[in-house]
Q: What sequence folds into this?
């Protein structure tokens, strides 16, 4: 059973639009949710993260919306740029202090100019 | 910024072969991890370590051994490689902030 689920598997949006990537999880004890961004040929890198005490986290054009009751979160990328084309992984862990992190299967995002 | 170096970058072996993947981090992080990445599965944790001599079992450990010889070096061993172990392997390190720093990956093909 996959603990962290992402949808859609792939997403294409036009430059300037808002891309919305979805994530849900099973374990209600998860309390830390990082998103990782991966470009082809590279390892993933931390993009933005949120803890379960918050319902929103912004960093420039990237915003996480978090719904603890429904065990869902989403990553919104506003004013999408071709350079945002990458695979995005939603992840979750139980403790802030470095318990193992569980990753979703990823969403491949393509931004068309 | 954390530096994690994996070698080799590409490896081809035959079924039943013996393979060692290497990882070195130069930021004095205590935690190191081995993940495999497969389409449709994302990143799955194989083994991880809290420090030299320590080893923890991850979520998909079957067919893999690992050894942490120093704080810097973490090795993944496939002693009898099988085609199901064809994958992209990532090493990562972290401190307590839960931010993983990944290497560039090793692509392994088992024929």
A:
């Amino acid at each position: 059973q996959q603990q962290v689920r992402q949808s859609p598997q792939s997403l294409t949006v036009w430059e300037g639009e808002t891309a919305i990537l979805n994530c849900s999880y099973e374990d209600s004890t998860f309390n830390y949710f990082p998103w990782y961004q991966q470009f082809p040929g590279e390892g993933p890198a931390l993009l933005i993260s949120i803890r379960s005490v918050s319902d929103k986290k912004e960093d420039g054009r990237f915003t996480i919306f978090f719904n603890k009751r429904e065990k869902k979160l989403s990553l919104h990328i506003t004013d999408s740029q071709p350079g945002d084309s990458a695979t995005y992984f939603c992840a979750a862990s139980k403790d802030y202090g470095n318990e193992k992190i569980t990753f979703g299967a990823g969403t491949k995002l393509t931004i068309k100019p | 910024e954390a530096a994690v170096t994996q070698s080799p970058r590409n490896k081809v072996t035959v079924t039943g072969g013996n393979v060692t993947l290497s990882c070195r981090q130069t930021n004095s992080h205590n935690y190191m991890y081995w993940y495999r990445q497969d389409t449709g599965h994302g990143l799955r944790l194989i083994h991880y370590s809290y420090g030299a001599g320590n080893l923890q079992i991850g979520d998909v450990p079957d067919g893999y051994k690992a050894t942490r010889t120093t704080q810097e070096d973490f090795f993944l061993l496939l002693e009898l490689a099988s085609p199901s172990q064809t994958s992209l392997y990532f090493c990562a390190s972290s401190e307590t902030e839960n931010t993983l720093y990944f290497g560039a990956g090793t692509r392994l093909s088992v024929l």
Q: What stands out?
A: Chain B has one domain: 4-95+102-110. Chain B touches chain A at residues 4, 31, 33, 35, 40-45, 48, 56, 58-59, 90, 92, 94-105 (CB under 8 Å). The first strand of chain B starts at residue 4 and ends at 7. The CA atoms of residues 31 and 50 of chain B lie 5 Å apart.
